[in-house]
Amino acid sequence: MKIDYIEALKSMIAIIPLYKDGEGKVTMIKVENGDEYLTNVSINKALRDYFALNLLSLTAVTAKSEKILDKKSLVPLINNNEVIIPIKTIKPLVKGDRAFGYINYSKVKEVRNGLIIFKNGEELPYIDKYETVKRRIAEGDILVKAW
């Protein structure tokens, strides 16, 4: 089933960067029903649009998360009690390329070393250290309690 960009964002389980032959870097939005939506918009633009769907500003949400966690980069984000966690999914080919995608932790069933398993059975490999991912999940829990 072909879905559009907005519908993909509404049911997003992950927004991740990837390199596609012949196109270069693209953004993939993985959705709950197992579909994948490819777009040329940046990860940041996709995140801004995702938060805008709930009338939230990515800048404001990021600033509030940074203040609560007393941390300046790669903070988890909250969108209506859904925790969006940054995770390194690719090794950049070019300096300045974004290597971090974001997962909707409320849709995650299990986190293993190098692999995230979503409730719908989808799997997403990652290259962060397992301890780093667990720390970001814990930070997400702190945000939920403090929000």
Describe the protein in words.
The protein is an alpha+beta fold and 147 residues long. It has one domain. It contains four helices and nine strands. The strands form two sheets. A six-stranded antiparallel sheet has the order 3-2-1-6-5-4, sandwiched between helices. The chain has a three-stranded antiparallel sheet with strand order 7-8-9, covered by helices on one side. The mean pLDDT is 93.
Question: What's the quick description here?
Answer:
Helices cover 31% and strands 33% of the residues. The model has no long low-confidence stretch (mean pLDDT 93). The protein has one domain (5-146).
Walk me through the topology.
Elements: H1 5-10, E1 12-20, E2 24-31, E3 36-39, H2 43-52, H3 58-69, E4 77-79, E5 82-88, E6 100-104, E7 108-112, E8 115-118, E9 123-125, H4 130-146
Antiparallel strand pairs: 1-2, 1-6, 2-3, 4-5, 5-6, 7-8, 8-9
Key phrases:
three-stranded antiparallel beta sheet, 33% strand
Strand order of the largest sheet: 3-2-1-6-5-4
Work out the number of β strands. 9
**Biggest pleated-sheet summary:** 6 strands, antiparallel
> N-to-C SSE series?
HEEEHHEEEEEEH
The global form is globular
Strand content: 25-35%
The number of helical elements comes to 4
Radius of gyration, taken over Cα atoms and rounded to an integer in Å: 14 Å
Spans of 5+ residues with little confidence (pLDDT < 50)?
none
Structural class category: alpha+beta
